[in-house]
Write a structure and sequence with these properties.
Blueprint lengths: L1 E5 L4 H12 L4 E5 H4 L3 H11 L1 H4 L5 H4 L3 H4 L4 H10 L8 E3 L4 E3 L3 H9 L1
Length: 115
């Protein structure tokens, strides 16, 4: 079964959940706000997909950071930022077991879930 990671009240999350529900895809939902994120899981995602794909630099949480925290970001610093404030992780992350997708694009979901 797939796992959808994100934050319950995010509009993109709502769209992804509605799409999965409409297609009858079974999934577990992991809410970062309620359950956080495990370091080992986040580190694995960063190795697989790159911190640049995962760190949501356009979100309010990142934009409110002091300028010093926004400078010199590398994988280690990005992981620490995302662990401290999981709302900085781009949403959603869909983990099918065989593949992981960051963000929601219906065509990409369809292609991945039909494979």
């Amino acid at each position: 079964m797939a796992t959808l990671y994100g934050i319950r009240n995010c509009d993109t999350m709502k769209s992804a959940r509605a799409w999965l529900d409409a297609k009858g895809v079974r999934y577990d939902f992991h809410d970062y706000k309620a359950a956080g994120i495990e370091r080992v899981l986040l580190e694995g995602w960063v190795r697989e997909m790159g911190w640049e794909a995962l760190l949501n630099r356009s979100g309010t949480t990142f934009r409110k950071l002091p300028d010093a925290d926004k400078q010199g970001i590398d994988a280690r610093k990005a992981i620490e930022l995302m662990l401290a404030q999981p709302s900085m992780i781009r949403r959603p992350v869909l983990d099918t077991g065989a593949a992981r997708i960051v963000g929601f694009q219906p065509d990409q979901y369809a292609e991945t879930l039909e494979a």
